[in-house]
Structure formats: structure tokens, C-alpha cells
Amino acid sequence: MRFYIKPNIFEDSILLNLKNEIETFFQAKLVTVESEANVVFVLDKSIYPGYLVKKMNQEKVIILAAETVSLLQGFYYYLLNLINNDFNDVRQTPNQAIRMIDHWDNFDGTIERGYAGRSIFYENNQFLDDYNRVKMYARMLASVGINYIALNNVNVHHEETFLISAKHLAKVKFLADIFGKFGIKVMLSVNFASPIRFGDLKTADPLDEQVQQWWQTRANLIYDLIPDFGGFLVKADSEGEPGPFAYGRDHAQGANMLARALAPHHGIVIWRTFVYNAHQDWRDRTTDRARAAYDNFMALDGKFDDNVTLQIKFGPIDFQTREPVQPLFGALEKTNQIIEFQVTQEYTGHQIDINYLLQQWYEVLHFDTKHGQPELLLKDVPQTKSPVPQNSGVAAVGNVGRDDNWTGNKLAQANLYGFGRIAWDADLTPEQILSEWLQLTFGKLEHLDVIKEIMLSSNATYEAYTAPLGVGFMVTPQNHYGPSIDGYEFDRWGTYHFADRNGLGVDRTVKTGTGYTRQYADANYAKYEDLTTCPDELLLFFHHVDYTHVLHDGKTVIQHIYDTHFEGVEKVKQYLALWPQLEDELAPIDYQNVLEHLNRQLKNAVEWRDQMNTFFYRMSGIPDNQERKIYA
Ligand code: GCU
């Protein structure tokens, strides 16, 4: 293979990296004469955004793009197709402008909700100088089109507050340079109370001129060192993090103050809408956490500066296995938006249980918000409903750590790969993405279908033995793995199931409940409000019903709970029975890794089944109509 890059000058660090990448992958120098090459990269201002791959003849491919980062992405696309030996003319344009991974890494090396070992960036309040690993990671992210990364936890603890100080910025720059070569902009999570924490001021009031000046000086310092710095990610007035509420200011005032400090440098503020009352009294049936984001932010639509983007979790509660789509989407008209997902498997199995999340994301992204004619799918919201599409897109909490295979369970790599792919093209199906990942990861295997079968059913399996009918949060408090049905029932977090001897679920209707359903566009409101049209998988999210309530498939709620929990365990047993077919084909380390995790998954599934079935049998007194073993 002979490569040529036009223009043949490499002042741009991304272009230089492209040259290095080609030389690394093909162990060959670029040729100096265009006609001798069979792969030619051309900067062409008319091809924007994305890139164009043109097959000239059997021998020659040309990749054109306006931006050097897109040429690099075109190169990775070329590699993918080389492996699949499938070349056709193709114009690739990303669905989303921002395609971001958020790290919840702490400076001490721990990772909030991390399940794959310690941080790849930090240890013991210092930067881990393992830049080789970071480079491999940057390559992986770039290969699927990720273009933003946040380097630290949104909960900004003591030491992390000082990541924006001269003491640490030199090392941040080091990381920013590595990511920068791969076309990825670095952002930092900042603490809203930084001016106070630094010991410089007595207030962090966004309307105070000294505070504004403080942030301006800080921004200037950062950009002097890191000219392509992305900006700030902010969790404010959320779960104990400081924010503008302390000064009687709103989120727009808080976000805009930071945004104005970054604006001269073209930086952005990504401001999270995960704001709710985290000190709720379980006795209080009027407050509804699901309502919170909409109640806090809808009235602020149009009040945010152009370089502010709201980062909104895909659902109203918290990355549950099953919850509806956040009603702010489609309703907001004058605010930049990012949809937030969680690749790290906090509520979805801790990377112990296999859970191929693309199934969930595909469904969520194709949800019709009913705010458009003939439709407005969630996937199209960031680019069509944001005043500055360039500052809008998707983000996800990442799932890598220092484990040798990056993600703890080897198969969880597919979620990171897949997130990048759907961020680029939300119409790629979970099957297509999985096929790509399997091909790239394992090559040709005789029993590839076994892995496919397991992974493609894994999301439904996890839902079956954990959360029935959209109920959510019956997990062990704090760590969120394994069952604890009443674990949150009398707690302050606003996540209740209200099970009693007659039934369960949260009444969120306008008629008799919290009125949350009214936050949706008319058609969705009507669908969710009415018991007969509410989709079964979300029934208990929207309604409190009797155990004998009959679902659309003719089963009662209680029988559905029993059936799914028995079936979920059987599925995991099936996976364990299938897996040995791969023993001779996979590297022993990968084979064992998944086997070991499957064994742990089975234990988890059995525990869920038995606790759930016993609990609801004791509550309802209604036996299983198939007389299976329930520990009464
Ligand atoms: C969840 C998670 C927290 C995290 C929070 C957030 O509640 O359990 O660890 O800090 O989300 O998204 O900010």
C-alpha cells in the first residue's frame, strides 16, 4: 500500500499525526509523488463536514475532507473497510457536532462509577505519566469519531478544583496535546465555588464583578497554555455541588458568567441539567424527581449564551435500564443541547453482567418526541433544536480504566466503540455495530454467532431479571449493583416504587398523580397518561397499578414479574452453556475473562430472581401460575 497526503506539508499537528499513523500501521514511508500512491488524502474545502471516500479504480482510493481531523477519521474508516475488504464511494457526515466522552476520574486515581480498574490519567493526586496508554486511548476514540473529552469527574473534589491552577495546567496541556493530535478537544470539570476554594474571594456569586474577573483571568491563563482547550463542564446545584442558587441566581446566570470568560477564546460551557431535590422526604408524595430537570430549565429556554450547552441525561431519572426519554428534548427551542448517556455500567451491570447497551441507545435515539411534523426523533434534536448546532451533540460517561483489556469485561469494549459509532451515525443498527466491533476485535471466528447471540439479547436479559416494567432503582444503595428492593424506599433521593399488598408503581399522571406526564408533547402526554395506551415496559414508571392489572400481552403484572425473573436467569444459564464453544477460538485470556464474568452474572441474576419473586409473592400472596420455586 502506498500513501500520499496533499498538501505535502505537515505544520498541522493532526496532519502530522495522520502521517505517523499511516507509517505505524503500514510500516512504510509516504510516497512523494501522487501518481505512485494508491491511497491519496486531499484537503478539499468543499467537503465539509466529514469526508468523502472515492474509489477511482481497483488500485486507487482518494479520501477528501475540508479539515485535517476529518482526513484522519477517513483514514480509520479506510482501515475498517480494508479489514472488511469493502470499498465503495461514500460520503460520511457526522450526525452530531459534539461527540464526547466524560471521565468521572478523580485525581487520587479512583473513578466514580468505574468498573475497569483505576484511572488511566491519575494516581495519588498526581498525573500518571503513562502517555503511551493515553495515546492508544486517544487513537481508539478518534477512530470512532469522538472529538471532545472531559478529563475529570463532574463532582469536583478538593484537589481537582486546582486542575485549573498553574500547578497542574502544564500536565493538562500534555494530555491536551496528545488528544489534540487526534482531533479531540480537552475539557475540565470545574467547581463553581472555585474563587472561594482557591482562597481568593469570599463569594462565587455570578453577578459579582470580582467573580467574573476571577474567571476571566483563569480562562486567560488556561488558553495561554492550551490554545485549543475545549472549555468547562459543570455540575452545579446538584447532589451537593455548589452553584448559583446559593446567591439567589439561576442556572442561566451561572452558566453565562463562565461562558463569557471563555468566549474570547472560543471555549464552551457544558452545563448539566441533572438538578433535583436530593433531600426529599419519602413521606412527601407531591415532589417528583422525574419533573425536576424540566421544572428547573424549561423556563430558562433562550436565556443561555451561544457558547453554553445544556447536557441533559437521556431520561428524567438517572441512566436507568428502562426509563422514558427526558421531556425537555423537543420542548427546548432556543438552547444548545447535548444528550447524555452512560457507557460505564452503573445501573446496568457494573461490567460484570454482559449488557450490550446499543440496543437501549438505538431505541432511545429513535424515540419520537412528537414536537415535529411529521416527527422529531430524539437523534435529530441536538442539531435541529439548538441555536448553535456546532455546540450541540451527544456525550457519555466513559467506561475505561487501567485493566489490561480496558473495560474489565472484554465485551464491554463494544459499548464504548458503539457509542462513538452512533454519535456519528444514529441509524447504524446495534447488529451492524456489533458486527464491526467483533470483526475488528476477534477477526474471523467460526462461532462468531455465539457471541452475537449473547450480546444482542443481553440488554433485554438484564432488564428481565432486574427492573420490571420501568420501575427502576431497586438496586443496592450507593453501589447500585444487585437487588435491594426497599434500599431506596425510605431514603432522600426521590426514587420510590410504592409497593404495597395491592400493587406498585409511581402515579405520574395529571389526573391523580404528580403531573409529570404533562411535560411531554400532547401526543406523548396522552399516550402515557392513559393506562390503556401506556407502553407496558414503562407502565410502573407512569402508573400505580394492582398486581392483577392485565398487560397488553394478557399477563398480569405479578405473573410478568415472576416470568421475566425466571426467564432472565435461564438466559444467563444459556449464555454459560454456549460460551465453551469459543474456547478453542479465543485467546485464553479473553475466553476466561468472559467466562468468569458470566459466572458472576449468574449469581447476580439468581439473587435478583429470588429476592424479587419472594418479595412480590409475600406482598401480593398470589402464587406463580407455573408453580416454580419461590422462597415464600
Ligand atoms: C448518578 C451517580 C453519581 C453521579 C451522578 C451525576 O447519580 O450515581 O455517582 O455523580 O449520577 O450524574 O452527576
Short description:
By secondary structure, the chain is of the alpha/beta class.
Give a verbal description of the structure.
The protein has about 625 residues and is of the alpha/beta class. The protein has helices at about 15-25, 70-85, 130-145, 160, 165-180, 195, 210-225, 250-260, 290-295, 330, 360-365, 380-385, 415-425, 430-440, 450-465, 520-530, 540, 555-580, 590-620; strands at about 5, 40-45, 50-55, 60-65, 90, 100, 120-125, 125, 150, 185-190, 230-235, 270, 310-315, 335-340, 395, 505, 545. The strands form four sheets. An eight-stranded parallel beta barrel has the order 6-9-10-11-12-13-14-15. Strand 7 and strand 8 form a beta hairpin. Helix 13 (about 415-425) crosses helix 14 (about 430-440) and helix 14 (about 430-440) packs across helix 15. The mean pLDDT is about 95.
| Average pLDDT, all residues | 97
Number of strands: 17
Report the bound ligands by name, code or SMILES: alpha-D-glucopyranuronic acid
Distance between the termini: 68 Å
**Shape summary:** globular
The DSSP helix count reads: 19
Using brief descriptors, characterize the structure shown.
632 residues; Glyco_hydro_67_cat; globular; alpha/beta; xylan alpha-1,2-glucuronosidase activity; alpha-glucuronidase activity; TIM Barrel; eight-stranded parallel beta barrel; 17 strands; A-glucoronidase_C_sf; AguA protein; 11% strand; Alpha-d-glucuronidase, C-terminal Domain; 3 domains; binds alpha-D-glucopyranuronic acid; 19 helices; Chitobiase, domain 2; five-stranded mixed beta sheet
